[in-house]
Amino acid sequence: GDGTLRYSAGKLLEAYGQVPPLVVIPGGTANLMARHLGLEWEPAHLDRQVLSAVRGGKLQYLDAASANGELFLLIAGIGFDAAVVAALDRVRTGPITMWSYVMPALQTLWESRFLPLSVAADGRAVFGPAPAMVFVGNVKEYGTGFSVLPRAKSDDGLLDVCILPCASHEDLLRLALHTMAGEHATLEGAQYLTARRVSVQAAKPVPVQLDGDSAGATPVEIELLPIRVPFIVRDRV
């Protein structure tokens, strides 16, 4: 899964100071990285296809970022989505499917506390304190299949930031519908910007997720790293 990939890339970076070209063979739930890279392997021809891709040497680079010192490559979420991930993390005992998120999502919805957040980008206050969800990352895609960061480019040397005010269950439902329609970033009160450093603070801890894995709570300091991670890709047909 994407969390294992992030962990492996982090260990390589820690050990060698750089990350060699990586091949992604998806085996997780959302497989967000494979979707972003356009990788569709055929199980019956996996060995041949991977060998052909390696020999082809076609690379796609992704900016790398860190959150409180922990590497991530795709997207960080602060707020409701991270609370769902944390709820699932508390009860999971092995492999999961999309259905595994249903009960944690319902539990989180029932227990939701819409806590005020304050967001700063490149040292400048841009939001809050007010209840919201915040997404920071490199790619457009999200685990749900919807585009949460629609203007993101994974190798442009910038992090995309989407801040969505959310103070009630009604707001949450409205945001979900607008996100499915691709309209969330243009809603009144929403903010969409790019930055190299993002800080999210809260008076009480608010959950954080990195690439779909639970990663503690606020305060969180996110920064773009001066490295890009190379991935071996295939020609899209």
Structure description:
The protein has 237 residues and is an alpha+beta fold. 28% of the residues lie in helices and 32% in strands. The protein contains 6 helices and 11 strands. Strands 1, 2, 3, 4, 5, 6, 7, 8, 9, 10 and 11 form an 11-stranded antiparallel beta sheet that branches. Helix 4 (80-91) crosses helix 5.
What is the secondary structure topology, with strand pairs?
Blueprint (H helix, E strand, L loop, with lengths): L1 H15 L15 H6 L8 H11 L2 E9 L2 E3 L2 E4 L1 H12 L10 H10 L4 E6 L2 E14 L21 E7 L3 H12 L10 E5 L1 E5 L5 E4 L2 E5 L2 E13 L5
Antiparallel strand pairs: 1-2, 1-11, 3-5, 3-9, 4-5, 4-8, 5-6, 6-7, 8-11, 9-10
Give the tags.
single chain; 237 residues; alpha+beta; 11-stranded antiparallel beta sheet; 6 helices; 11 strands; 28% helix; globular
Low-confidence stretches: none
Mean pLDDT: 85
The largest β sheet comes out as: 11 strands, antiparallel
Secondary structure category = alpha+beta
Number of strands: 11
Q: Report the span from N to C terminus.
A: 24 Å
Strand percentage lies at 25-35%
Gyration radius from CA atoms, angstroms: 18 Å
Q: What is the chain-wise order of helices and strands?
A: HHHEEEHHEEEHEEEEE
Q: What count of helical segments does DSSP give?
A: 6
Please estimate the helix content.
25-40%
Shape: globular
